[in-house]
Design a protein that fits this description.
With 221 residues, the protein is of the alpha/beta class. It has helices at residues 29-38, 55-58, 78-95, 111-119, 141-146, 176-189, 207-220, and strands at residues 2-3, 6-11, 20-24, 46-51, 104-109, 128-132, 156-162, 194-199. β3 (20-24), α1 and β4 (46-51) form a beta-alpha-beta unit. The longest helix is centred in the middle third of the chain and has 18 residues, at 78-95.
Amino acid sequence: MNIWGKNVELFLSEKSGAPLVVLNGEAGEGATVHAAVKGLTNVDFTLAAVSGLRWEDDLTPWPIPPIMKGGAPCAGQADAYIELLAKRILPEISSGLPSAPEYIALAGYSLAGLFALYAMYRTDLFARVASASGSLWYPDFAEFVKNHAPARRPDALYLSLGDREGKTRNPLMRPVEENTRMLAEFYRGAGIRTAFELNPGGHFNDPNGRMARAIAWMLEG
């Protein structure tokens, strides 16, 4: 279904009160991720896979110039997308559920993983958060986390990265492993149940598998 310009695929649980996982991603990946998660955990859940996103705009917290030659700048319109999620998309999704979910979780890969963490500081809707290979190299994001309190303290938080992601030639992205490890320790130090997983390969290795493992851990957490 189309909700305010975004495409939403719903994979419904038959269990009353099952958690709702919101996954920001690419068109068509919801079915693959949903099936992979079902193969990893027996926890029932409903998946709402949202696509049709303007990645460099909807998922970034503040504007930055292009990160590579010939690329597009990031417009930093995450706040507007969070408001759209909270006031338009999630209410319409919830109206199609058989009952209210036990909790709502937010998950994403790459810039959508960055967005998942940033959303914790802008809305109290999400009880659990998963950032798989999140773009935590994003300029000033680590400092933002250290200097702001979440709108809601998450019950469980998952971070992951590929072991070659920090070996990029792009100097802007090179701190991604250092930042991800540091933020995992920061959240643990704040008493938040936090997992960090280092996966083999670069950023584009097995994204659906990484996302599925993140969601499965979050559901069981």
